Every structure is written in structure tokens, then in C-alpha cells.
# Entry
Amino acid sequence: MSEKMSKRIRRLEARVTALEGRSGHAWNSSMESAVREIAEQEARRMPRRQVYQAELAASQWKHLTYAILVGCIIVLIIANTAVHAKAGDTYPVGPPVVVTAKETAVEPTEEPEEAENELIEAALLARSHVIEDCTITFYCNEKYPHICGVGNGIAADGTPALAWATCAVDPDVIPLGSTVLVDLGDGEGLRTLVANDTGVKGNHLDICVGSHYEAEQLGRQAAAVYWCEE
Ligand SMILES: [Zn+2]
# Structure
């Protein structure tokens, strides 16, 4: 090795040493501080990330809980509707329910009416005069002149002669306008008539019917007649 070469090597070594000595500490310290800073940043970031993840998980749980609740409510509504629909379908079909409703609807309308009629009849009978063994005959309201009348269908007091409602009496025995009750024994019970017409004498009741044939068929009868001026 030449002298020149040795000098050059020593110079290079000196430069390297100088470089190492100059930058070593500074470089190391700056590296250390950089590493520390990164570690601190990471440490700071970690809890934040954990918090974020925890928040994310919580919000996901919240959403899941809401979804389950809404699902439960929908299922309940559907179940409830289905039960009601089923009840609504079966209710009107049930024959016992319909029959019971019909019976309860019909009975109260008929029974009080019958009871009321019986009470009215009883009250009328209590205040009535009675003609035992009264002669009963029948005439018609057909509109042509014949034995039953002139054919205008009008009673003595000017009112229309109505079948099974108007009767003719002797006004000296039963006052005109009186209510007349008679049971002809034909199963129809006590008939209620009004003495609107005249043309007979004494204990005689002439009952208006709808046709001359019917009047002939009913003929001449005898029955107890009750009357009162009401
Ligand atoms: Zn006639």
C-alpha cells in the first residue's frame, strides 16, 4: 500500500467517524422521539377507536332491539286481527245465536200486545152492560142496492161500514157510537165492534162483513153482547 493510499483511507475513516459522531446522537434522539410520538398517537387513538367501536356496537344493538320490538308489535297486530276476523266470521253463522235473537225479538213484541188487549177487554167488560141471548145477524158492505143496504157502503152515522168492525144496533137499546164486544164461539175470541149503524130493533146486533155470501153463510145466531159508551 502506498503512502498516498493510506492517507486516503485514514481520511475516509475520519469522515465516517465524524459523520457518525455528528449525526449519531441527534439522529438517534430524533428517531426515539418520532417512535415515542407515534406510540403516543397510537395510544391516544386506541381508546378513541375502542370508544367508537363500543358506540358502534351499542347503536347496532339498539337498532336490533328496535327491529325486534317492531317485529313483535306487527306479529301481535296480525294475530289480533286474525282472531277478530275469525270471531267475526263465526259469530253470525252460529244458528243458536240467531235463533235466540229471533225468539227474544219476537216474544216481547207479541206478549205485551196480547196482555194489553186482554187488559182493555177486561176494563171494557167491567164497565159494560150485558144483553144475554142477543140475536146476531150479518149484513155486507158490497156496493150495490140490495137487502143489506142502499149500496153506498156508508153507515148510519156517516162513517164507512167496515167488515168485522161496524155493527148495526137499535139506538134505544145500545147508544150509537158504543163499543160492542161479542164472542160468537167461532174460536176468534172476543170481537170488538163499534155501533155506527142502525136498522134493527130490540136486542139485536147486525154485524157488517165483507161479502153477501159470507153474511148468508153466517146466518142467524144468538150470543151474549156487551156494550159500553166508550
Ligand atoms: Zn149483502
Remarks:
- Strands lie at 129-140, 166-168, 179-183, 190-197, 204-209, 221-228.
